[in-house]
Amino acid sequence: MLNKVQDWQRTEAEEHFSDLLEGAKSGRVQRIADVDGVFELKFKASKRERAGDVLARGGPGGD
């Protein structure tokens, strides 16, 4: 089972920014400790529809 949170120190996160983004994209919250608090980064996928599904609905009132 994957750990749902990955903790980083800010300097470490800055050095491994690509890894931080990939970790968030894979479903793990990235928590970055800063002297003033904590950042939390998570990935939210865009909700895309297939073009055929959109066109099949028709225009306004087409439902």
Strand content is 25-35%
Major sheet description: 3 strands, mixed
Helix content: 25-40%
Structural class: alpha+beta
Task: Quickly count the helices.
Answer: 3
CATH architecture of the domain at 5-44: 3-Layer(aba) Sandwich
Tell me the series of helices and strands, N- to C-terminal: EHHEEH
Number of strands: 3
Q: C-alpha Rg, in Å?
A: 19 Å
Shape: elongated
* Low-pLDDT residue intervals, each spanning 5 or more residues: none
CATH T-level fold name of the domain at 5-44: YefM-like fold
The overall pLDDT average reads 87
Distance between the termini: 43 Å
User: Biggest sheet, strands in spatial order?
Assistant: 1-2-3
List keywords for this structure.
63 residues; alpha+beta; YefM-like fold; three-stranded mixed β-sheet; 35% helix; 25% strand
Q: Please, could you describe this protein's structure?
A:
The chain has 63 residues and is an alpha+beta fold. It has a domain at 5-44: YefM-like fold. It is 35% helix and 25% strand. It has 3 helices and 3 strands; from the N terminus they run E-H-H-E-E-H. A 3-stranded mixed β-sheet has the order 1-2-3. The longest helix is centred in the middle third of the chain and has 9 residues, at 17-25. The mean pLDDT is 87.
